[in-house]
Amino acid sequence: MLLGDELELDVDAAREEHVRVARRLASDYPDVGAIVLECTNMPPYTADIQRETGLPVFDIVSLVTLVHGASPPGASAPRVLSPRLSVRPL
Q1: If pLDDT is split at 50, 70 and 90, which confidence band does 75 have?
Q2: SS3 58
Q3: Cα(51)–Cα(53) distance, rounded to whole angstroms?
Q4: What is the H or E stretch that residue 39 is in?
Q5: What residues contact residue 23 under an 8 Å CB cut-off, 6+ apart?
Q6: β-pair type (57-58, 35-36)
Q7: How far apart, in whole angstroms, are the C-alpha atoms of residue 17 and residue 25?
Q8: Residues contacting residue 60 through CB under 8 Å, at least 6 positions apart
Q9: Which of 20, 35, 43, 87 is deepest in the core (most CB within 10 A)?
Q10: Using only C-alpha atoms, what is the Rg of the chain?
Q11: Of 52, 45, 44, the residue nearest 25 (C-alpha)
Q12: Comparing C-alpha atoms, which of 69, 37, 31 is closest to residue 50?
């Protein structure tokens, strides 16, 4: 983890921390059906978390893959409305 404005990340320590916390989450809350990694720095640990918890793990990479796979060939990127925007009927 990067603490104290360090310039280098101990990747192994970060991986161990992510996996440890995910295992605790799965143990403390056995009804959890999936884990969502909201931080864009977390995708490198997705496979490790999946393997250790046995749960589906979603991250920004899986979101982009899902949206891309759902788009028709040749389609432009889908437009996403902000939840604060209202859509008026035509």
Answers
A1: confident
A2: strand
A3: 6
A4: none
A5: 52, 53
A6: parallel
A7: 12
A8: 37, 40, 43
A9: 35
A10: 18
A11: 52
A12: 37
Which residue spans within the chain are E strands per DSSP? 35-36, 57-58
Report the length, in residues, of the chain. Answer: 90
Do residues 43 and 15 make contact, with C-beta atoms less than 8 angstroms apart? no
Q: Return the percentage of the chain with pLDDT > 90, whole number.
A: 49
Q: What is the pTM of this model?
A: 0.70
CA 9 to chain centroid, in Å, comes to 19
Res 21 pLDDT > 80 = yes
pLDDT class of 73 with cuts at 50, 70, 90: confident
Classify residue 14 by burial, with Cβ atoms within 10 Å: 0-12, 13-18, 19+.
middle
